[in-house]
């Protein structure tokens, strides 16, 4: 369903897309004067495992559903692996968007989105982190780490609002999902598939993550143990990297944070398990809008060829 909010027509706005595995959100975001505001929005269902034609048609439908505006550069936030500089999909063998592998998505969107003068791509977790750095729970922190908990673990390590993707202070490519925990990939312990599998081993039942959380709240000891172990492992894996990076804040978002009452204690315990210092995890302040805001500022900065500056 399309949602349009009044009062946007006379304010500078940036068009954006946020692309996920199950939906795409198109929005007009007003930035640059006071708090950022999503002034028009349209969401389309998306099958990340579908054919390329169906996926790209959904992206274009979402963008074309927005109210008409002046020609502009679009900001597009989407998961990797993706060549963000060139706009080329690199999804071979990842189980999501595989049909797009090798596609020049930048050219396709530039030709098909209304009023599009160019496309500025960035990683969806980085977009979320930048939105929270600009005016969310990590506002203005010199060294901010953000993680998103959904199908897997997304992440971004920001220094003064810019993603750090190499060097000794961050994991490979600045990606928490590439961290190993007890000799195994982190997402073998912390991901939707890992939680479902762990609960099935413990109980003999297959529940999705939201149902596991509900069971834990209802007194199911196996469900509580599965969640505690998973998010404790996340804290243990992140803690040394937070210290190396000098993180001043750890902001957490994503669909799983609907169970923050269960996640936060386990994550905090994991962060402190080795006795070292680590920032206490905080819930995103703008969980619904942060990635849209980050994508809008990215598009504006790309147009101006200038770094993002915090609004007053």
Write the layout of secondary structure elements.
Blueprint lengths: L1 E3 L8 E7 L3 E8 L6 E9 L6 H13 L7 E7 L3 E2 L4 E2 L15 H8 L3 E8 H12 L7 E7 L3 E7 L2 E2 L16 E2 L2 E2 L6 H12 L5 H9 L3 H25 L3 E5 L6 H12 L9 E3 L6 H15 L8
Description:
Helix content is 34%, strand content 24%. The strands form 4 sheets. Strands 1-4-3-2-5-8 form a 6-stranded mixed beta sheet, with helices on both faces. The chain is an alpha/beta fold. It folds into 2 domains: 2-123 and 288-304, Nucleotidyltransferase, domain 5, CATH 3.30.420.40; 137-283, ATPase, nucleotide binding domain (Nucleotidyltransferase, domain 5), CATH 3.30.420. α5 crosses α6 (221-245) and α6 (221-245) crosses α7 (260-271). The longest helix has 25 residues, at 221-245.
In short:
This protein is 34% helix and 24% strand.
What's the CATH superfamily of the largest domain, by name?
A: ATPase, nucleotide binding domain
CATH class descriptor name of the largest domain: Alpha Beta
> Per CATH, which architecture of the largest domain?
2-Layer Sandwich
The major β-sheet equals: 6 strands, mixed
Helix percent reads 25-40%
Name the shape in a single word. globular
Number of domains: 2
Distance between the termini: 33 Å
Number of beta strands: 15
Q: According to CATH, what is the topology of the largest domain? A: Nucleotidyltransferase, domain 5
SSE-based structural type: alpha/beta
Strand content: 15-25%
Low-confidence region ranges: 1-11
The H/E string reads EEEEHEEEHEHEEEEEHHHEHEH
User: Can you give the mean pLDDT?
Assistant: 92
Within the largest sheet, what's the order of strands?
1-4-3-2-5-8
């Amino acid at each position: 369903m399309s949602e349009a909010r009044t009062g946007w027509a006379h304010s500078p706005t940036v068009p954006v897309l946020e692309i996920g595995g199950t939906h795409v959100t198109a929005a007009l975001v007003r930035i640059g004067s006071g708090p950022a505001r999503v002034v028009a929005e349209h969401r389309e269902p998306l099958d990340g495992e579908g054919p390329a034609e169906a996926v790209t048609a959904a992206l274009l439908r979402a963008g074309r559903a927005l109210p008409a505006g002046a020609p502009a550069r679009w900001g597009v936030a989407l998961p990797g692996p993706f060549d963000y500089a060139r706009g080329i999909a690199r999804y071979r063998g990842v189980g999501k968007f595989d049909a797009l592998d090798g596609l020049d998505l930048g050219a396709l969107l530039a030709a098909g989105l209304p009023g599009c003068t160019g496309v500025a791509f960035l990683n969806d977790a980085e977009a979320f982190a930048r939105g929270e750095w600009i005016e969310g729970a990590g506002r203005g922190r010199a060294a901010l780490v953000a993680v998103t908990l959904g199908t897997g673990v997304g992440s971004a390590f920001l220094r003064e609002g810019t993603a750090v993707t190499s060097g000794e202070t961050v994991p490979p490519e600045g990606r928490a999902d590439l961290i190993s925990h007890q000799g195994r990939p982190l997402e073998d312990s912390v991901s939707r598939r890992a939680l479902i599998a762990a609960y099935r081993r413990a109980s003999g039942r297959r529940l999705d993550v939201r149902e596991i959380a509900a069971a834990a709240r209802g007194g199911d000891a196996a469900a509580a143990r599965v969640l505690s172990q998973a998010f404790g492992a996340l804290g243990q894996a992140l803690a040394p990297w937070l210290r190396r990076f000098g993180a001043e804040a750890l902001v957490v978002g994503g669909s799983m944070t609907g169970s923050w009452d269960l996640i936060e204690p386990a994550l905090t315990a994991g962060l402190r398990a080795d006795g070292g210092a680590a920032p206490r995890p905080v819930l995103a302040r703008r969980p619904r809008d942060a990635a849209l805001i980050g994508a809008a500022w990215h598009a504006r900065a790309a147009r101006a060829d200038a770094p993002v500056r915090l609004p007053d």
